[in-house]
Amino acid sequence: MESGFYGSSTDGSLKCKFEESGLANTHDIMEKAVRWFRSRSIFVVAYGTGCGAIEMPPTFTSRYDAERMGVVGVATPRQADLIILSGYLAYKTLRRVIRTYEQMQKPRYIMTLGSCPINGGMYWDSYNTIKKLDDYLPIDVSVTGCMPRPEAVIDGFVLLQERIRNGEKAGWEKYDENFEFYKENQKRVLGGHIDPSYETDWYNLKSGGKA
Ligand code: SF4
To answer: Model-level pTM?
Structure first.
């Protein structure tokens, strides 16, 4: 049987319509639907860093109500799709952020707020602040400003949703492909031991495995 999408039309016009729009078969249609649903159910892990954390309450409560766009907060990284890094990051914070990001299930996304994660912002010459976060973690959307208002944050959600819907290459794929590059940069500022170690034998910890 010929593969393709068949609707209720007997003359095949429905099939032609789908073909014209580039949705030639059931797989394409399902892919597009999954991407659309995914873009409208973004769970954001509750994590605040820098000045922007204070913009989150109005973004998620009744005034701006991010939930109407399918963007909601969750308490744990294992249930989250998105982490918002809402300002400057000290090296100490970066260690926790890496751990949180790596606990999130794929597909996972990172959005940053403000100029600090892009170029250090007003901490550009600080001895303990990250200057270019993109060297350590893959950023999907950067919302600029110091500090961006909730309208701008919502604009960032819209952009991320558009990218998910279009099936654009996401940061987590870039992270997987260039894992060595990111790990090298992370080690350069955090030292050789980034918890948890990837060599840890978790199953044999009690019987002599090394953490
Ligand atoms: S960009 Fe401005 S508001 Fe944002 S963390 Fe930096 S100093 Fe704070």
So the answer is: 0.83
